[in-house]
Design a protein that fits this description.
heterodimer, A: 235 residues, alpha+beta, Multidrug-efflux Transporter Regulator, Chain: A, Domain 2, 3-stranded antiparallel beta sheet, 49% helix, flat, B: mainly beta, 2 domains, 12-stranded parallel barrel, 1 helix, 3% helix
Chain lengths: 235, 243
């Protein structure tokens, strides 16, 4: 990471007008991801730095939360252990523009009034929505199955501790006048290298998707309405 | 699963398969195979859970071993306990010896015995009068440490941090008079950061905060303070700067 894009903890406190207590509290609540804490040795001793844009944006969002309750809800959404149990009402997803009959079908979710989906399903929907433009129908199904399987194996627990990517890959194999193309889904830490014959259809940063969902949902609860609009436009 | 939850008690030697229970009591030597959800878990002999444990209350007065995550409203350890995983407890009281390989998340942690953790300890309030060894960050809104043994954490951060010399122990007093105390009953860490910090008997590379008091027996590399700093005569501070 480029040094210019880093901001020291002291600068964060000063620029954002917050205290050590608040910063540590938000860290504990999981509102500030562990991976953003970058420890460096400087001439004044060990210091902690953050990715500037991300931390500034995050703290602005946190400060915009109107009440402690909203903050707790945001925290609940961001910390997985709790959010596994969270049910997200359909009408909220509807407002976020996530609901799409074809995606719901792939995820085996039935559209019902007053129904809710789990955090996992919401996550799956969000990933599929991002993959859709590049993927074929059967590949969407493959992505869904790979994701659900990974989630079953505690994928969510791994996301906070490092960047996890989902790659959709294709490889053409030909011989004897027959050619076939196979599709693959790989979920791995960032930096995976594929052989040159593999076509990387799309790569999704799962951590970013998860953060996005959580913040979107949290913002619907108590945040600023313009953020929700921004989400709708984002694809 | 039926709503009626069972209760199990092992008083000789035995084992049971995990599941949902209202109460499990182990007073002999017992083993729970698999994940368990239990309202009330009491181990006064030697007990072992070989899966995850989700409990309302856990009381260990003998020896307890948990081979995976423990989630509880209240966990009390007065004997000896080991968790090979994370601990999430609203309230954690340890007067015996407690070891975890994963981190601890709790609203309230009270240590009067000894605690060893392989990762971070996160709480709203952390109080210790015993010793601890935290191989990670110790963070809480309020941290109160009465140094009663070797206390070590990689880093400490929060809102208010108070470290005091344990004055009530006669033995500690004697040891101090005899002058063999140095290096035994101390808090050792690299970085301490909080809005209000008051320290005694602490060794740290860096102390950063708004209002800082460096008291008796401290050996600090650098103090960076925003508003106020007071340093006792017998404390050692190599470098101090107002930021």
């Amino acid at each position: 990471m480029d040094d210019e894009h880093l901001i020291s903890k002291k600068e964060v406190l000063e620029e954002m007008g917050i205290s050590y207590g608040q910063l540590y509290r938000w860290k504990r609540k999981g509102l500030i991801p562990e991976v953003w804490f970058i420890r460096r040795s400087t001439f004044t001793g060990q210091e902690t730095f953050f990715p500037r844009d991300q931390i500034v944006e995050r703290i602005q969002r946190i400060k915009a939360m109107k009440s402690e309750h909203a903050l707790d809800e945001l925290a609940d959404l961001i910390t997985e252990q709790v959010s596994a149990k969270i049910q997200i009402a359909f009408d909220r997803l509807q407002k976020l523009g996530w609901l799409d009959d074809s995606l719901l079908e792939i995820c085996h979710i039935k559209r019902q009034d007053g129904a809710a989906v789990s955090m996992r399903e919401a996550f799956c929907l969000a990933v599929l929505r991002r993959v859709r433009s590049a993927a074929r129908q059967e590949e969407l199904d493959l992505v869904q199955r790979a994701l659900m399987d990974a989630l079953e194996k505690k994928l969510m627990d791994r996301i906070p501790s490092g960047t996890i990517h989902l790659h959709l890959l294709r490889k053409r194999i030909s011989g004897g006048g027959i050619s076939a193309e196979i599709s693959m889904v790989v979920i791995s830490p960032e930096g995976a290298i594929f052989d040159p014959e593999i076509e990387v259809v799309t790569t999704i940063d799962l951590g970013a998707v998860l953060q996005r969902i959580r913040l979107d949902l949290a913002n619907m609860n108590g945040g600023r309405s313009e953020d929700v609009g921004e989400v709708k436009g984002e694809e | 699963m039926s709503d009626e939850r069972q209760s199990a008690s092992i008083s000789g030697s035995g084992s049971l398969t995990g599941g949902t229970f209202s109460r499990i009591s182990i007073s002999g030597s017992g083993k729970v195979n698999g994940d368990v959800v239990v309202e009330d878990l009491r181990i006064s002999g030697s007990g072992r859970v070989s899966g995850t444990t989700e409990a309302g209350q856990i009381v260990v007065s003998g020896s307890g071993t948990f081979s995976d995550t423990v989630i509880a409203d209240e966990m009390r350890v007065s004997g000896s306990s080991r968790v090979d995983g994370l601990v999430q407890a609203k309230e954690l009281k340890c007067s015996g010896s407690f070891r975890t390989s994963g981190g601890i998340t709790s609203d309230y942690v009270k240590i009067t015995g000894s605690l060893r953790t392989g990762a971070d300890v996160e709480a709203d309030i952390f109080r210790a009068t015993g010793g601890f060894d935290i191989d990670g960050l110790l963070t809480a809104d309020k941290i109160e440490i009465h140094v009663g043994g070797r206390c070590r954490a990689k880093e400490i951060g929060g809102e208010r941090i108070e470290v005091r010399r344990a004055s009530h122990s006669l033995l500690a007093g004697l040891v101090r008079i005899l002058g063999v105390n140095s290096g035994v009953s101390r808090l050792e860490t690299t970085v301490i950061e909080a809005d209000e910090i008051s320290l005694e008997d602490t060794t740290a590379d860096i102390v950063r905060g708004k209002r800082i008091e460096i008291g008796a027996g401290c050996r600090i590399g650098t103090v960076e303070y925003e508003e106020t700093l007071s340093v006792r005569d017998d404390a050692e501070v190599r470098d101090r700067r107002q930021v």
